[in-house]
Amino acid sequence: MSTLRLVLPPFAPDYSGVCACLFSLGDQALTVIHDGAGCTGNYTGHDEPRWFHSKSPILCSGLREIDAIMGDDETLVKKILYAASRIKPKLINLIGSPVPMVIGTDLEGIASEIETISGIHTIGFPTNGLALYLDGIRMLYRKLVISALSESDSGSRTAPSSKLPSVNLLGATPLDFHGLPVIPELQSLLSAAGYHVNTLLWQEYSQDDILSIPDAVCNISISSAADELSAFLERTYGIPTLYGFPITLPVPEQFLCGHAKEDTERQRFLQVFDQVILEKKSLHLPVAVNGPAGTCKHALILGERITCESIAAAIAPHNITSDFCTVDRIVKDEGPAEDLLNSGKYDLVIGDPLYKGLLHAELPFISLPHFALSGGVLEP
User: Fold this and answer.
1) In CATH, what is the architecture of 14-131?
2) What global pTM score does this model have?
3) Contact indicator for 196, 169 with CB cutoff of 8 Å
4) Is 3 or 250 the better-scoring residue by pLDDT?
């Protein structure tokens, strides 16, 4: 019963990770989730905060029991071709769910058939609803970004749209950053420092922006889902990557004994960022220091890995050491998080408010909502 979850809801699954990245393409892309409406409803109703105030053609295939039994892929192809004739997208995406996985649906084969008939580039994503949203994002990087860049002429570069040195922001999805000012503040910080944001994946981007990724002088990866893409860009184009971002937490004064300095972490981020550009090598932000000070000495941070590292870098100058419990450790079992929270080692916890339900005794807790876990549960 190790996979039994009594307190925490399930994390956003892989198909939600793919759809969250494709959402910003709007009418440029037609995305079809192959299911009987349950998974589509889970994504649109719980994992996509933009669904109710903006538009993107993400449809459900309406998979019926008889279709699953008989393996009626022809009906699916006809439905997608009809939708494509109305929407006229530049890209079609076919997303998997648990039922297609169980019956062995060849989503990539169906995608190839649709592309042959329609002439529209079509990608099949064999997601199954059992993996983590980060796995879905990684799959999208491989099938959409790395594939497109590999097929293009790697020796040719487009003329930069700005005279300022440009930067790619990788890994920006609402599943990790909804409700947090990380992305707009990072954009403002870079702009003030004289840098232009070349491509923002996965927000405010187009298909053409993907091909301009090699024009940047540096990548900033704010999610571990972008690790493979960052390595590809460094290997292929020599573009270094900074992993992490400056973050100012609403840390209560009693935790830090009045040592909170908002500008210190931001200035250090720019120094590390400049070091990445000058030395042309990838770097992680520093994540820990030793030496007790203040009322809190050892923190447990729960969440996505690079977010955890960035928070640790923000509190490290206050002589608070940190341990992480990343989402990949608790995606199937909340036990590791519960054990760490109640180990007696920590006097500060930072994470989504839903983790409070795993605490057996009260601890100082800094809430940092993680939409991939709590979804809209915490929103008014």
Assistant:
1) 3-Layer(aba) Sandwich (3.40)
2) 0.90
3) no
4) 3
